[in-house]
Amino acid sequence: MSDPAAPVRKIIHVDMDAFYASVEQRDDPALRGLPVAVGGGHRGVVAAASYEARKFGVRSAMPSVTARRRCPDLVFVKPRFDAYKAVSRQIRDIFADYTDLIEPLSLDEAYLDVTEDRHGLGSARAIAEQIRARIRSETGLTASAGVSYCKFVAKLASDQNKPDGLCVITPAQAARYIASLPVSRFHGVGPRTAEKLQRMGVHTGADLAALSLAELEGRFGSSGHWYFRISRGIDDRPVRANREAKSVSAERTFDSDLHDRAALLEQLERVAGLAWTRIERAQALGRTVTLKIKFSDFRSITRSRSFVVPIEDEAGFAAVGRSLLEAELPVPLGVRLLGLGIASLTPSNKSLPIQLGLAI
């Protein structure tokens, strides 16, 4: 799979179970056992759903109206991100007892490289079991974990026995395991790609592995190389501690559709302010501003503009957002959501002069 002379890495992917909803059920005993959705509101979306809600088909990113239709008894609670971040820090501290090589993917999941057995527990399985036990003991929450020799297989494994499960896939088991899974479960294969593969008669990892590199690159371009490798269990990506964010953004869903220019620009200013707060917290600046608009029919568009140098103040960031929005006005349908973000990030350096730069 990889260089046979290289030492086998021991990678754990830890994924908290229904994290936001589980924190809410932990902190409010009245919610335990009930179908719970975090987020919602009249025009909002589900940020997270408890396992009781998932039995009805409620999923994250689902419009709250759809979620309520699927589960009439669904209990919506407002998100408390400060509480989720506090628990996430607790969990991160537990990870740090076992390794310095921690790559967070979000508040509720991370990769750990435990090739070095810091506490002499004897195996990555034992380390994962101890981490899960400590998470339960110290936070009152459950986590699932996948253990393998690479990040791709470890992430697949963490989803295998959810919730509150552990799955270990050794190098000898990997080929058969990958071959048995639907390609829709593969990290990096989105819904549209999965549909395209299925139209090609590719439904499982075994089907994907039967295709040549030339076939995959011919149909999927540079992504074809990734599909070729993962179908064979090849993933040499290291666990990257202190991974830098690729983009920072914020968005807002409105209680009623917006059509009026003034109202849209006013709401964009609020979204820009929220996004800039997150940008400052990330201590990074960016060169590419992206506007997201979701219409009343749930169709979304994005518009971007890039600059030679980073945008270093909120006023400049908001001005680019306004320009992108103005170019789309008047809108053909009501707007239910606006988002604004920044990408092509670099570490901020406040000693540099503030300038907007030239578009490219």
- Cα gyration radius (Å): 22 Å
Distance between the termini: 42 Å
Q: How many discrete structural domains?
A: 4
| CATH class bucket of the largest domain | Alpha Beta
Class derived from helix and strand content? alpha+beta
Average pLDDT over all residues: 89
Which residues form runs of ≥5 with pLDDT under 50?
Answer: 349-360
β content, as a range? 15-25%
The helix-strand sequence is: EHEEHHEHEEHEHEHHHHHEHEEHE
Characterize the biggest β-sheet.
Answer: 5 strands, mixed
- Sheet with the most strands: spatial strand order: 5-6-1-7-8
Give the total of beta strands. 12
- Overall shape: globular
Percentage of residues assigned to helices: 25-40%
CATH architecture of the largest domain: 2-Layer Sandwich
Q: How is this structure best described in words?
A:
The chain is an alpha+beta fold and 360 residues long. It folds into four domains: 11-17 and 82-170, Reverse transcriptase/Diguanylate cyclase domain (Alpha-Beta Plaits, 2-Layer Sandwich), CATH 3.30.70; 19-80, MutS, DNA mismatch repair protein, domain I; 174-230, 5' to 3' exonuclease, C-terminal subdomain (DNA polymerase, domain 1); 247-347, DNA polymerase, Y-family, little finger domain (Dna Ligase, domain 1), CATH 3.30.1490.100. It is 38% helix and 24% strand. It has 13 helices and twelve strands. A five-stranded mixed sheet has the order 5-6-1-7-8. It has a four-stranded antiparallel sheet with strand order 9-12-10-11. Helix 10 crosses helix 11 (223-230) and helix 12 (261-282) packs antiparallel against helix 13. The chain starts with 10 loop residues before the first strand and ends in a 13-residue tail after the last strand. Mean pLDDT is 89; it is low at 349-360.
